[in-house]
Amino acid sequence: MGNSSFWDDLNSSCSNAGNSCYLENSMRFNFTLQEQAADFYIVLPVIYSVICAVGLTGNTAVIYVVLKAPKMKTVTNMFILNLAIADDLFTLVLPMNIAEHLLRYWPFGEILCKVILSIDHYNIFSSIYFLTVMSIDRYLVVLATVRSKRMPHRTYRAARIVSLCIWMLVTIIVLPFIIFANVYTDDLEIKSCGLNFPKPERFWFKASRIYTLILGFAIPVSTICILYTMMLYKLRNMHLNSNARALDKAKKKVTIMVFIVLAVFLFCWTPFHLATIVALTTDLPQTSMVIGISYFITSLSYANSCLNPFLYAFLDDSFRKSFRKLLECRTS
After folding, report:
1. How many CB atoms lie within 10 A of CB 184?
2. Contact, 28 vs 192, CB < 8 A?
3. Where would you find the membrane-spanning parts of this chain (predicted)?
4. Are 209 and 276 in contact (CB under 8 A)?
5. What is the C-alpha to C-alpha distance for residues 58 and 44, in angstroms, rounded to an integer?
6. pLDDT by residue (tens digit) across 59-76?
């Protein structure tokens, strides 16, 4: 696992796989190519700082409200809580990514390198898996409503157990990235934090991208699409059946909120995964436009971590009321 040979081979991969060097993980970029895009180099820390400040404030507020407000302890809010925790962890370590961009080397050592890369990948996988669980929950709620049945096992405690299982599953999925995360020194003696694969490095690099694409996007998104297709079918039949009971207002609002949160997630992350496919299957020239697009795609995926709190505040009346009530209690 020589560092120089790894980067020699990775740079060769970048010439053959286009902007894959920017998507090697969702935080690391090739510094040689950064020199070709000085404007992006200056703008990126500003963008990341805004995402960090807004995301950290918003997600911390979500965590505080869900944990403190008694009326917020619902099954859906348990999954929202875990989404906010994943986003909060990511935005919490984003300043180190900003520092790496500004300093143009990794100054924090190997342990923090593993921590940062693991949190980065936790964010990729945990968000989509919790959204998948939320979609499954919405489907079961709709199904139970159509059949006019109760759901005695759908409890806050059960949601906590499911959430714990999701974190354990994501830990297993992320484990290979934690193992390969390492601080390496390139030919210019510049320290960087990234995935240091064994030989043949190019094969492992592509395998890691396919692994992320399948487990972090293709399987969960396909599952979600199937669930929502079935859900819409059930709702359509329920509308046509005069004996069926319509979803009550509260359940419909929650279903719409989950759908919008999912749609925003796909809007932010689909370009990232599509770019991975393009990078691994085509030979893109390393032009300023390609570099700029890859930076924009990565920034868009980061931005998802600060958007969800605004969606909850805009779509969920109980969240707004609980937040205002807690603020009044704190100031009184």
Report:
1. 20
2. yes
3. 40-67, 79-98, 124-146, 158-181, 210-233, 254-272, 292-315
4. yes
5. 21
6. 998 998 888 887 888 898
| Burial call 10-37: b when 16+ CB within 10 Å, e when fewer | bbebbeebbbbbbbbbbbbbbbbbbeeb
Q: Which is it for the CA torsion 70, 72, 75, 78, positive or negative?
A: negative
CB atoms within 10 A of CB 182: 18
Question: Which CATH number fits the domain that encloses residue 319?
Answer: 1.20.1070.10
CA distance 83 to 58: 12
Q: Say whether the peptide bond before residue 198 is cis (omega within 30 degrees of 0).
A: no
- Per the listing, tokens 């199937």 go with 226
What are the E-state strand segments in 180-267? 181-185, 191-195
Residues 247 and 255: beta-carbon distance below 8 Å? yes
Q: How far is the CA of 208 from the CAs of 163, 175, 182, in angstroms?
A: 25, 12, 15
Domain residues for the domain of 257 are 3-331
Q: pLDDT (tens digit, 9 = 90+) per residue, 81-126? A: 999 999 999 898 889 888 888 888 888 888 999 999 999 899 889 9
> pTM here?
0.81
Question: How many structural domains is the chain composed of?
Answer: 1
- C-alpha neighbours within 13 Å on the C-beta side of residue 194: 29
Q: Phi-psi bin for 104: left (phi > 0), alpha (psi -120 to 50), beta? A: left
